[in-house]
Amino acid sequence: MSLRKLLRFRKKLSPNYPVKTPKEMPKLTYDDLINAEAELGRTIFGPIPEGHQREFFEARQNVWIWHESYLDTSGAIKEITVRYEVRPAGVYKKSNVSKYKKITGDELDNFRMATKAYLNLVKTKLYC
Predict the structure, then answer these.
(1) What residues have CB less than 8 Å from 97, skipping those under 6 apart?
(2) Model pTM?
(3) Domain that holds residue 24
(4) What is the DSSP string of 1-25?
(5) Considering its fold, how many domains does the chain have in total?
(6) Percent of the chain clearing pLDDT 90 (strictly above)
(7) How far is CA 66 from CA 4, 16, 26, 43, in A?
(8) pLDDT per residue as tens digits for the range 51-82
(9) Which of these ranges, 3-7, 54-58, 113-117, has the smallest mean pLDDT?
(10) Closest alpha carbon to 11 in 30, 34, 27, 31
């Protein structure tokens, strides 16, 4: 489900969200929702090492972002951002240091499992 569709259902936020009536519903922005989704998405890849930051989310329909940043041993900030685009011809990825490349095999299977886990997580924890 795309974020745009989920935005339409923001009134169905989880019971953990302290809202009782539609009039009490806060005005959530696209940024609020994408940040909440990214926070949930970072958890599907297991524990985050100390000093690392990680995000995984659907930026828009058929476009997924995985980002990780950390300090290396010399104290320099290292960042990697990978953009995945789901197209009729397959799934393509592009990192901040490479060109678009079609993914196949285990990498494609892992991407599919990650997106399914993400969608299930945000639907059940954020938009239920």
Answers:
(1) 80
(2) 0.73
(3) 3-125
(4) --HHHHHHTGGG--TTS---SGGG-
(5) 1
(6) 46
(7) 19, 26, 28, 12
(8) 889 999 999 999 999 999 998 888 899 999 99
(9) 3-7
(10) 27
